[in-house]
Design goal:
Layout: H1 3-15, H2 18-24, H3 29-36, H4 44-52, H5 57-61, H6 73-104
Helix pairs in contact: 1-2, 2-3
Length: 105
Amino acid sequence: MTFGEKIRWFAKQNFGNVSKLAEALNMHQPDLSNYINGKYRPGTDFYIRMRKLGCDINWLLDEDGVIKEPKIEYGVRDLEKEIAKLRKAIKQIQNVLDKLNREEL
């Protein structure tokens, strides 16, 4: 899968089409099409924005010719961190509720 094919695939899977991906990247669709068509190569800022949208940059840059879907391990790690934060917040809320319940008795 070429670089351009991967961008198209990512756009379709996550945004429905390339135009919506361009909008999410805060860039003009013709500029994104230039990357897809190989007319220009994107700079670092593009890769940072793609990563923020959930794209595995290693997958995007790997042009080994093998058609494969991106790894989602980065997203899983991010979710695990968020779950840990939420569990901590829930425990703090539970402690406050327990304290309030004891005061009412």
